[in-house]
Design brief:
about 130 residues; alpha/beta; Rossmann fold; five-stranded parallel β-sheet; 5 strands; globular
């Protein structure tokens, strides 16, 4: 059972969306819409921004919708001055042997005290963050 469909799901908080969660949200998933509408903070990693925009079947309407969405949330960038994020990326990558993009997304959730919304099973192994499955 997906966590989004649990009756007692927390309806406010801080959430970072993985690429697959953004796709699910923009397709109009009602449970995810409800969750994100009530969020106190919503963000994506710059990796999610890139992954979404390079999707091969992306229509012009999809790009417009995504750009509108990404302007309303925080996009977590990787900057050499953000030592906390870089250290978290390295630590997660080494500890869990994740691909670099997944390590960046997980570390972005960790450093922003956010729950990660994702369908990626590999990310559920990261014990330092709470993952909500879509």
């Amino acid at each position: 059972m997906h966590l989004l469909y649990k009756k007692n799901l927390e309806m406010s908080g801080r959430y970072l969306l993985d690429t697959n969660a953004v796709i699910t949200l923009l397709k109009g998933n009602s449970e995810l819409l409800k969750l994100t509408e009530n969020a106190e903070w919503l963000g994506i990693s710059v990796i999610t921004l890139i992954e979404f925009l390079v999707f091969p079947d992306l229509s012009d309407d999809d790009k417009i919708l995504f750009n509108s969405f990404s302007e309303r949330i925080d996009v977590i960038a990787i900057d050499k001055s953000n030592k906390e994020l870089i250290d978290a990326i390295i630590s997660i990558r080494q500890k869990y042997k994740l691909k670099l993009p997944d390590s960046i997304i997980a570390a972005s959730a960790l450093c922003n005290n956010a729950k990660l919304i994702s369908a990626d099973k590999a990310l559920t192994a990261v014990k330092e963050i709470k993952t909500i499955s879509v």
